[in-house]
Design brief:
Elements: H1 4-16, E1 19-26, E2 37-44, E3 47-53, E4 79-85, E5 93-101, E6 109-117, E7 123-132, E8 136-141, H2 154-170, E9 173-174, E10 183-184, H3 194-202, H4 207-223, H5 232-237, H6 247-255, H7 259-268, H8 289-296, H9 302-305, H10 327-338, H11 341-348, H12 350-367, H13 373-378, H14 385-395, H15 402-406, H16 411-424, H17 427-430, H18 432-438, H19 448-461, H20 472-480, H21 484-488, H22 491-504, H23 520-542, H24 545-549, H25 572-576, H26 582-596, H27 617-642, H28 668-680
Antiparallel strand pairs: 1-4, 1-6, 2-3, 2-5, 5-8, 6-7, 9-10
Helix pairs in contact: 4-26, 11-12, 11-16, 12-22, 12-23, 14-28, 19-23, 19-27, 20-23, 20-27
Length: 703
């Protein structure tokens, strides 16, 4: 039996042992808690503390913290506090090991972060944001952004190596199509790592269900009509069923015949990156100056005003259509030019945002450890990109899917178009200031896309005198790199760039994509290109798809008949016959509703880093400064739009999100059901629409 003296001695020892106060937080994810056993090991620069079991289950729904204002993180996080006593001072805490164990039933757990207060009052934070599944151990490094040269301890170097090896095994490349950018080597979304798909699969949110069901209920009568359109008013009626979403389509329906509105869409429509300045008339362009002199007016001529190049040989069956022609001749000619649905849906939209975004995401996961500052910077811009792209492969671009049925291009033609698009993709075209200069549109008036996009590019990258220092990207790079030698000497960074060059652009030196980065300026520019592509460029070419495409004559997905061989003989029926049939139009419209829908609730706006992976003060200051600049841009856009008849709102920060598909992640899974239901029944009369639930209100402020 212990004597009072022995007991006192034990108590004294306990009181003099170094004490570490530990807080473990489960993620703000529905069903993110667990009833499995969780234990923790502290690893310091002088030793480690044996694993200690956390005494409380992380049961879902028992957290006491206030709800997080995020539609992706719908439940309050839970925090568990514990005290760990050690026989010796562990020194600087550099690593945490989380151990998950179960006796019977599996219950996966998502860890948000761990905070450790050392004996001297030093606070160490370990951002985690990982799912733990099965019987497993996860190692989490202290949250300061560190490059390889910053790791002094051998245990940290080993951790970095093991983490990258595991990531490269989990995220491997494959060629979906040989001539396309390479993509993730998985066969279905079920093979994706939980940390890629977590909110999509595990969160229960019925907004997407309602959007999908509502679109089908509202358009059911059109989906079952494999017939030609009977009139323009009939076409107009289809979007009147989508309450709150008809404001801009109504404007389009009123103005689509006007030449000014036709030209406006080349500047500020869904595909605003193709217009360029043409300074020389091509030899095969058979339009003579006298043909268009009356339309151009005095003080100018065709050579000055030339903007569009066509290869055409003038002849009896190949007329040149002019503004002075009969109404239906000219409307048909403009509608044919406007039928670039497959160009937008295969090149501008998927290739230059989704496919390149997937390349950026995979290379980041493969080449940058989670402690690397660029991983912390970039990963919020890739949320759900891999998940969405995997679904798109299953729904959009296979034989019999939406693109194949709704556009004027076969699957074989689609492959060729994307191949040619990749061959023409250049670093210049992806870097907005260079692209604007290269296309010769620096001083083009009323080019809202250019104005808003340049404001966002500059806010992301450049020096801002009003802030007395660096802007977001240049500030992050300066803080973590400082000098050019740190850039060229970062092995992980160089591997990341090579991976993008090799697997995204197939090693084409003609693309101008760098295969290495040597200076701070080069790194800032490249990172700005990546973030701009995922943030602003995607918004500009995605968010207006329903607005400008809901009224079929303005942007048909295909034209089924050739242009008239003779002028003066076209009438209304010649316009109604070439455009897609009623059921095809309805299918496309459902897709556009899903692609461009804005979900209700708080949006993960640009500059919002919900996962707080940075732990240093400087990055947080830069993020707040960046958010302030974005708010100024938003206010300028709002002020400009206040007086506009048709507002250009697609890069308004109220409509833009932090990564490519965040607004799709709640409901794109149901898009899969759309493709399957349509593909399963080739005859419209056989299609069954068996969806229950109330019809949602599509209320949204007009853009």
């Amino acid at each position: 039996m212990a004597t009072p003296g022995a007991i006192a001695w034990c108590v004294l020892v306990q009181l003099t042992m170094p004490v570490y106060k530990v807080t473990v937080a489960t993620g703000d994810i529905l069903k993110g808690g667990t009833n499995n056993s969780i234990s923790i090991t502290l690893v310091g620069s002088r030793g480690e503390r044996c694993r200690t079991t956390i005494n409380y289950w992380f049961l879902p729904g028992t957290g006491s913290c206030p709800p997080t204002p995020s539609r992706f993180l719908p439940t309050p996080h839970q925090e568990k506090d514990m005290t760990m006593r050690c026989e010796q001072d562990l020194g600087r805490i550099v690593l945490i090991r989380l151990h998950k164990w179960r006796l019977f039933l599996e219950d996966a757990w998502v860890c948000r972060d761990i905070r450790v207060m050392g004996p001297d009052g030093t606070l160490y934070r370990f951002p985690c944001y990982q799912w733990l599944e099965g019987v497993t151990t996860a190692e989490v490094q202290e949250g300061s952004g560190k490059k390889l040269v910053d790791d002094e301890l051998e245990i940290l170097k080993q951790h970095r190596q093991h983490e990258l090896k595991a990531q490269q095994e989990a995220y491997q490349w494959k060629s979906f199509i040989e001539v396309w950018p390479r993509c993730l080597n998985v066969g279905s979304i079920l093979e994706l790592d939980s940390n890629v798909q977590f909110s999509c699969v595990r969160a229960t949110n019925f907004t997407g269900v309602l959007i999908f069901q509502g679109a089908f209920h509202l358009l059911a009568g059109f989906l079952l009509r494999p017939t030609f359109w009977k009139s323009l008013d009939d076409m107009r009626s289809i979007f009147s069923w989508t309450r709150g979403r008809e404001i801009v389509p109504e404007y389009v329906a009123r103005h689509w015949r006007e030449d000014d509105f036709f030209s406006y869409q080349f500047f500020n429509g869904n595909n605003p990156i193709i217009i360029q300045h043409c300074v020389v008339l091509p030899a095969k362009f058979p339009v003579m100056p006298e043909m268009v002199a009356s339309s151009l007016g005095g003080g100018t001529n065709l050579g000055k005003e030339m903007q569009e190049v066509l290869s055409q040989t003038l002849g009896p069956t190949s007329p040149i259509f002019l503004r002075s022609d009969a109404e239906w001749d000219w409307l048909l000619a403009k509608t044919w030019r406007n039928a670039d649905f497959y160009s937008h849906q295969l090149l501008t939209h998927p290739l230059r945002t989704h496919l390149f975004g997937e390349v950026f995401a995979i290379t980041t996961l493969r080449q940058l450890p989670t402690c690397h500052p660029l991983f912390k910077l970039l990963v919020p811009h890739f949320h759900f990109t891999l998940y969405i792209n995997m679904l798109a492969q299953s729904v959009l671009i296979n034989p019999g899917d939406i693109i194949d049925k709704g556009s004027g291009v076969t699957c074989e033609g689609m492959l060729l178009i994307v191949q040619q698009g990749l061959e023409k993709a250049t670093y210049t075209s992806l870097c907005l200031p260079d692209d604007i200069w290269h296309r010769g549109v620096v001083h083009l008036p009323s080019y809202r896309y250019r104005d808003d996009a340049m404001s966002l590019w500059e806010a992301i990258e450049r020096w801002h005198k009003g802030l007395g220092g660096s802007c977001f990207m240049s500030g992050i790079v300066a803080f973590y790199y400082g000098e050019d030698v740190a850039v060229s000497g970062d092995a992980a960074l160089q591997a990341w760039v090579v991976d993008i060059f090799t697997n995204g652009f197939l090693g084409r030196t003609s693309s101008g994509i760098p295969s290495s980065l040597r200076t701070v300026a080069e790194l800032s520019k490249f990172l700005t290109m990546v973030v701009f592509t995922c943030l602003a460029q995607y918004a500009a070419i995605n968010n207006g798809q329903y607005d400008l495409g809901a009224f079929l004559p303005n942007a048909p997905s295909s034209m089924c008949h050739p242009l008239p061989a003779e002028k003066g003989k076209a009438f209304l029926q010649h316009f109604l016959n070439p455009v897609p049939e009623v059921d095809t139009t309805a299918n496309i419209l459902v897709a556009l509703i899903l692609l461009s829908s804005r979900l209700s609730g708080v949006v993960n706006a640009p500059g919002t880093y919900l996962e707080q992976r940075f732990t240093e003060v400087e990055p947080h200051w830069l993020i707040r400064a960046f958010q302030g600049q974005l708010e100024e841009i938003r206010d300028r856009i709002e002020e400009r739009n206040h007086w506009a008849k048709l507002r250009y709102n697609y890069m308004n920060l109220l409509e833009t999100e932090n990564s490519i598909p965040e607004h799709l992640q709640k409901h794109f899974g149901f898009f899969w059901r759309l493709g399957n239901s349509l593909a399963a029944a080739p005859n419209s009369s056989e299609r069954q629409l068996n969806f229950a639930g109330s019809t949602p209100d599509y209320s949204r402020e007009a853009t």
